[in-house]
Amino acid sequence: MSETSPRVVAFDEASAFVLGGTSGIGLAVARVLQDKGVRRIMLAARNAERGQAAIEALRGPADIRFIACDATDGASVAAGVAAAQAAFGAVDIAVSATTAETMLGLVGNLEMRDIERGLSGIALPPLYLAKAVLAGMKARGGGAIVSVASDAAKVATPGEAVIGAAMAAIAMFSRTLAMEAKRDGIRVNVVTPSLVTGTGSEQRILASPFAAKIFAKATEKAALGLPDAAEIAELVAYLVSPAAARLTGQVVSLNGGISAA
């Protein structure tokens, strides 16, 4: 496939796989993709009950299905992608929007297992998904991969050493993969919000006095206001759309101006 003529699939012809698609940003991404014309969407997450609830919440013109999947297990992610390919014939759009339970904490206060859990829970899912969809996208001459990470990938913040390391891993993996895959028409980008209002992650952060204090300072810098899940989803949808056919290897912050201060 020529670098100047990637295969671009219109939304109404595309099939999407959303890892972490049953809640928060992932669910919002599925909703926006459906609204923009995507007619085949596979939601992947651990909990089948939440998966069914997500399908009900998204009920509309698209064929939306759920596959139980452990995002931290490479074989499970690969099996989920294979199921989507069998059901839809292809995965043209792959979005990782998983969340981890890891909270902020100074390194000196962390247990060894917190470091392992943080790195594996945050960094591995988007890497596994990208690897799982890569061969199919290459065979078809194109595709779009987007990972939702966070601004911790770019900005060092006390209490976010492990989170930042994991998010930076997602960003560098994606940028490197973008260079490797561009000749096959595959685009790879990352979205990095900070605090996203109305999500479970926001609730967990605000429930922790230490985390709430850190993010209160960050929020003061968000002169444009903090985004919600729907706004993050709109950016993700743009990045996987035909309108962004020439855009790859980017790590895009959407945080109301926090990192612009």
If you had to describe this structure to a student in words, what would you say it looks like?
This protein has 261 residues and is α/β, with parallel strands linked by helices. The chain has one domain: Rossmann fold, CATH 3.40.50.720. The protein is 45% helix and 15% strand. It has helices at residues 24-35, 48-57, 74-88, 112-140, 161-181, 200-207, 209-220, 229-239; strands at residues 15-19, 40-45, 63-68, 93-96, 143-148, 186-193, 251-254. A seven-stranded parallel β-sheet has the order 3-2-1-4-5-6-7, with helices on both faces. The longest helix has 29 residues, at 112-140. The chain starts with 14 loop residues before the first strand and ends in a 7-residue tail after the last strand.
Helix count, per DSSP? 8
H-E order: EHEHEHEHEHEHHHE
Structural class: alpha/beta
Task: Output the radius of gyration.
Answer: 17 Å
What is the global morphology? globular
**Straight-line N-to-C gap:** 41 Å
- Bin the strand percentage: 5-15%
Task: Count up the domains.
Answer: 1
CATH architecture: 3-Layer(aba) Sandwich
What is the makeup of the main sheet? 7 strands, parallel
The first-level CATH class is given as Alpha Beta
Mean pLDDT: 91
